[in-house]
Amino acid sequence: MPELGYPALVTGAWTALMEPKATPKDVVARLNAAVNEALQQPSMIETFTRLGAQARGGGPRSARRCDQGRHRKMGADRCGAGLQED
User: Domain range for residue 58?
Assistant: First the structure.
């Protein structure tokens, strides 16, 4: 939005899969591997590109870092959505 005169307004979308806190680590690892593999498929890359998006993949640690960064930028109340962290 800086190009429209709003330098402090940051926009974007971020999506992640979340699992219950008690999910076994091996299940999280298998799900993570399957999702990352799917994101590398040509049809997925084409779909994301057509939508103007970029699928980066990653894992629980990178998702946590991204979420924490957005949390600091957006505020603890997640823009009034009432979402809470475990």
Answer: 40-76
* Residues 58 and 36: beta-carbon distance below 8 Å: yes
| Residue-wise pLDDT tens digits, 1-11 | 778 888 877 67
Determine, yes or no, domain membership for 44: yes
Alpha carbon distances (Å) from 82 to 11, 77, 86: 20, 6, 13
Whole-number pLDDT of residue 67 = 65
* Pair of tokens at residue 65: 């870092």
Find out whether 36 and 63 touch, Cβ atoms under 8 Å.
no
Nearest CA-CA partner of 40 in 26, 62, 55, 53: 55
Residue 57 inside a domain? The answer is yes
How many domains would you assign to the chain? 1
